[in-house]
Write a structure and sequence with these properties.
The complex is a heterodimer of chains A (116) and B (114).
Chain A: E1 5-7, E2 10-13, E3 19-24, E4 31-37, E5 44-50, E6 53-56, E7 65-68, E8 75-79, E9 88-95, E10 106-107, E11 111-115
Parallel strand pairs in A: 2-11
Antiparallel strand pairs in A: 1-3, 3-8, 4-5, 4-9, 5-6, 7-8, 9-10, 9-11
Chain B: E1 2-5, E2 10-14, E3 19-21, E4 24-27, E5 31-38, E6 44-50, E7 56-58, E8 64-68, E9 73-78, E10 87-95, E11 103-104, E12 108-113
Parallel strand pairs in B: 2-12
Antiparallel strand pairs in B: 1-4, 3-9, 5-6, 5-10, 7-8, 8-9, 10-11, 10-12
The chains are: A mainly beta (116), B mainly beta (114).
Chain lengths: 116, 114
């Protein structure tokens, strides 16, 4: 597609439920990133994929968070046993450079997650 | 590790006035520097970036920023703002060595008043 696509744009769930957020990067971009943006904060790094593998998952807050990118294109961020503190906008970004060599990223519009 | 400080969370300014949004960073290694803009209900969009060379960088929509290594700053400026510049602005840094991820500041909400 023309840009990074994220679905759903909005997700409301109950505490304890499981959630999946999907990201479709720009075609041909090998690097894919997930960030989390809480209200009044800047985006916070979660995980980075180079191809199919997670090259850096140091930003995942705990083991309830997991992400996959099985074919090196679409990625899914999975959150188990959601908590109210997980409420945020989850941003996906992609980059055409194999090593993300300058850090310039192309962002989607985000998925707003609300945990009641 | 890097960190970014945006000193002003909100900056109101009248239309056609100049504006400066401040950004300071901390890093033990050399960095690349970026400014992103986020309009309401839209994704982040790259405004400009400093990679190397001239310390004065020009970006889209008439914005520019100056890299000051001694002061570890990368302030964003525009000589005359428009209503359409109202948005959230984020300063970000990446490590030149790995450049695998961006570290963002907390953002500055620029509101241009008529």
């Amino acid at each position: 597609g023309a840009g990074v696509s994220q679905t759903p744009s909005n997700k409301v769930t109950e505490k304890g439920k499981y959630v999946e957020l999907r990201c479709d990067p720009i075609s041909g971009h090998t690097a894919l990133y997930w960030y989390r943006q809480s209200l009044g904060q800047g985006p916070e790094f979660l995980i980075y994929f180079q191809g199919t593998g997670a090259a850096d998952d140091s930003g995942l807050p705990n083991d309830r968070f997991f992400a996959v990118r099985p074919e090196g294109s679409v990625s899914t961020l999975k959150i188990q046993r959601t908590e109210r503190g997980d409420s945020a906008v989850y941003l996906c970004a992609s980059s055409p450079q194999k090593r993300g060599s300058t850090g310039e990223l192309f962002f989607g519009e985000g998925s707003r997650l609300t945990v009641l | 590790a890097q960190s970014v400080t945006q000193l002003d969370s909100q900056v109101p300014v009248f239309e056609e006035a100049p504006v400066e949004l401040r950004c300071n960073y901390s890093s033990s290694v050399s960095v690349y520097l970026f400014w992103y803009v986020q309009y309401t209900n839209q994704g982040l969009q790259l405004l400009l970036k400093y990679l190397s060379g001239s310390t004065l960088v020009k970006g889209i929509n008439g914005f520019e920023a100056e890299f000051n290594k001694s002061q570890t700053s990368f302030h964003l400026r525009k000589p005359s703002v428009h209503i359409s510049d109202t948005a959230e602005y984020f300063c970000a840094v990446s490590d030149r060595g790995s450049a695998r991820q961006l570290t963002f500041g907390s953002g500055t909400q620029l509101t241009v008043l008529p």
